[in-house]
Write a structure and sequence with these properties.
7-stranded mixed β-sheet; 5-stranded antiparallel β-sheet
Length: 267
């Protein structure tokens, strides 16, 4: 076969090419239960998002082109979303009830790293939404800024999320706060940012890494403690989901911030 010769035989097709989603195979893309996310059904199913910058991969992920439903229109391109690299994708494949990120959402993304997951969130929220991506570390921050150059709905912020007032002039109110910071005071960071930027009745989606918060306790106990910290900060827990088999001892906790009372809505 190709460069891989004998070596590439395992994963790839019979000719040693890169396996998985190839143009030759017939791939059908259908909408996922979560708005803005899609499933590509082929030899093996993959979670995908609609590529807002067709022809460009952000981090070397596979891309799938599908003929658009209207004839003469350009092809539609999707990007494969790997659950082993993204906690949100892992939560979606784990059957999470609602990720509270959809077309038009305004999302504060804390712990954006190099922006691999952020790029998919950017695909989901689309041109009418926005992603405020906060990352403290400068090296991945460079990649994040480069990714944001071609994606106008991503606002990269290279600041410490423990000091939200430093970037308050860059952010309006958001619908959802997503956090993946792997810090022992993660709940406090989320609460602090939510008090400034999260609308009442908005949602927090938090990836909790048990070993980062307390490596001596059982993961279940750590998750429970994080939930009670959020409850103390006016969050109402909605669901919790472990990220097996994609991550070990991780959970995603989803909570609603200052839920709007039913009584007021009735008046």
């Amino acid at each position: 076969g190709g460069r891989g010769g004998g070596r590439g035989g395992g994963r790839g097709g019979r000719d040693g090419g890169r396996g998985g989603m190839k143009g030759g195979t017939k791939v059908v893309v259908e909408p996922h239960r979560h708005e803005g996310i899609f499933i590509a059904r082929g030899k093996e199913d993959a979670l995908v998002t609609l590529n807002s910058t067709p022809g460009v991969a952000v981090y070397g992920e596979k891309r799938i082109s599908v003929d658009s439903p209207t004839p003469d229109a350009p092809k539609v391109e999707y990007r494969v979303w790997n659950p082993f690299r993204s906690k949100i994708a892992a939560a979606v494949l784990g059957g999470v009830d609602n990720i509270w990120i959809k077309p038009g959402s305004k999302v504060l993304y804390i712990g954006a790293a190099a922006g691999t997951s952020v790029s998919h969130v950017s695909d989901i929220v689309g041109p009418t939404g926005s992603v405020y991506a906060v990352e403290f570390s400068h090296r991945p921050g460079r990649d994040l800024i480069n990714m944001a150059k071609s994606r106008t709905n991503v606002i990269p912020i290279i600041e410490d999320a423990r000091h939200p007032l430093k970037y308050r002039m860059l952010i309006g109110m958001v619908d959802t706060v997503f956090a993946d910071v792997a810090q022992p005071d993660q709940a406090r960071i989320v609460a602090l940012n939510s008090h400034y930027f999260l609308k009442n009745g908005g949602h927090a989606v938090i990836a909790v890494k048990a070993s980062c918060i307390d490596s001596t306790a059982a993961p279940e106990a750590v998750f429970r403690r994080e939930v009670s910290k959020l409850q103390a900060e006016n969050f109402k827990p909605l669901e919790q989901l472990t990220l097996e088999p994609y991550e070990r001892d991780h959970a995603v906790v989803i909570a609603q911030y200052r839920p709007i009372k039913k009584k007021k809505q009735a008046e």
